[in-house]
């Protein structure tokens, strides 16, 4: 029997430094209305979808908090929650969260009733705390965000089991397997991936999109789960380009829908949450085939152990 849901990845193009949140939210609502017209039930927005991707800057400490949300929904995001409820559409939203004096890179899953089902805080925080000399653009996520404290969770939602990850998390197989061991059927992951992030950029930056697709296809296949991957992308200022390549990937590792621009773009697919069953009960039948007693090193140490 099928358990279908119509999902959409609402890819968000450049958000300029001075672009007010209210304008960005209007763009998000426009994408949601387009999605609703197509019959989409769950609209997925990217990581840090409300402001320019500020970790490229070395900010004065007095500037940092203006990029963060003190509440969700808050004054500028309430219209998005209201419109979603009117349309009867659920959504996923990534944003910078200020919780007391703690700064997190966060995402929420919101039901069709406009209520927040779950919250996730990004576990793997890449980049550096201090600027790297000689770089025109920095990647200072470790300066601005604490490592997330929620862990990787799966919620019963939208007729299935839904989990979240954020950006760099998708590169770590542990992310997918911890979700997989909780029976996840749909992983929603947003990203902001600068195409100029790699050291020795030019030899490797050409592989950035391959690594993105590889991470999602492997994660989906090895855990029998769907993924909606969605980018905050485009040239946010001259010479700073964030990768697009939003995509919807099946539990068989197949890309079933792929964005082709680096601007605001909606891609969608009707996905059958039952499609992962043959993977979960077959080649990756964890109960039957996994050998956790041999894997202890994975959770006991953070560095490769010289054997
Ligand atoms: N961005 C990048 C990402 O993991 C990065 C950082 C880029 C790490 C390229 C390694 C290589 O997609 C975020 N926001 O994590």
What does this entry look like structurally?
The protein is built from 10 helices and 14 strands. With 307 residues, the protein is an alpha/beta fold. The strands form 3 sheets. The protein has a 6-stranded mixed β-sheet with strand order 5-4-3-2-1-14, covered by helices on one side. Strands 6-7-8-9-12-13 form a 6-stranded mixed β-sheet, covered by helices on one side. Strands 10-11 form a two-stranded antiparallel ribbon. Helix 1 (21-38) runs parallel beside helix 3. It starts with a strand and ends in a 7-residue tail after the last helix. The mean pLDDT is 96. Residues 126, 141, 167-168, 171, 191-193, 197-198 line the site of D-[(amino)carbonyl]phenylalanine. D-[(amino)carbonyl]phenylalanine binds at residues 126, 141, 167-168, 171, 191-193, 197-198.
Helices and strands, with pairings:
Blueprint (H helix, E strand, L loop, with lengths): L3 E8 L9 H18 L3 E3 L16 H4 L13 H10 L2 E10 L2 E9 L5 E6 L19 H4 L9 E4 L2 E7 L6 H8 L5 E6 L9 H5 L2 H14 L4 E6 L2 E4 L2 E3 L4 E3 L5 E4 L6 E8 L4 H5 L4 H4 L6 H5 L7
Parallel strand pairs: 1-2, 2-3, 7-8, 8-9
Antiparallel strand pairs: 1-14, 3-4, 4-5, 6-7, 9-12, 10-11, 12-13
The structure holds D-[(amino)carbonyl]phenylalanine (ING).
């Amino acid at each position: 029997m099928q358990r279908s849901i119509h999902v959409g990845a609402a890819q968000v193009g450049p958000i300029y430094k001075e672009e007010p949140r209210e304008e960005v939210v209007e763009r998000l609502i426009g994408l949601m209305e387009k999605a609703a017209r197509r019959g989409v039930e769950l609209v997925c927005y990217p990581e840090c979808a409300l402001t320019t991707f500020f970790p490229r800057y070395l900010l004065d400490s007095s500037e940092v908090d203006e990029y963060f949300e003190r509440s969700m929904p808050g004054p500028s995001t309430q219209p998005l929650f209201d419109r979603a409820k009117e349309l009867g559409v659920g959504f996923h939203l990534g944003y910078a969260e200020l919780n007391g004096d703690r700064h997190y890179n966060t995402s929420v899953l919101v039901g069709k009733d406009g209520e927040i089902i779950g919250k996730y805080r990004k576990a793997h925080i890449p980049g550096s705390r201090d600027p790297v000399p000689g770089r025109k653009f920095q990647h200072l996520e470790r300066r601005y965000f604490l490592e997330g404290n929620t862990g990787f969770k799966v919620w019963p939602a939208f007729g299935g089991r839904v989990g979240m990850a954020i950006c760099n998390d998708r590169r770590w197989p542990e992310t997918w397997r911890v979700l997989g061991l909780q029976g996840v059927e749909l992983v929603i992951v947003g990203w902001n991936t600068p195409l100029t992030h790699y050291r020795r950029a030019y030899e490797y930056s050409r592989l950035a999109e391959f690594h993105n697709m590889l991470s999602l296809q492997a994660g989906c296949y090895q855990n029998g789960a769907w993924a909606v991957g969605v980018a905050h992308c485009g040239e946010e200022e001259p010479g700073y380009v964030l990768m697009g390549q939003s995509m919807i990937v099946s539990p068989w590792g197949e890309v079933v829908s792929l964005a082709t621009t680096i601007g605001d773009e909606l891609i969608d697919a009707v996905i059958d949450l039952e499609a992962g069953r043959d993977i979960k009960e077959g080649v990756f039948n964890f109960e039957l085939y996994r050998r956790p007693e041999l894997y202890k090193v994975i959770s006991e140490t953070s560095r490769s152990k010289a054997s």
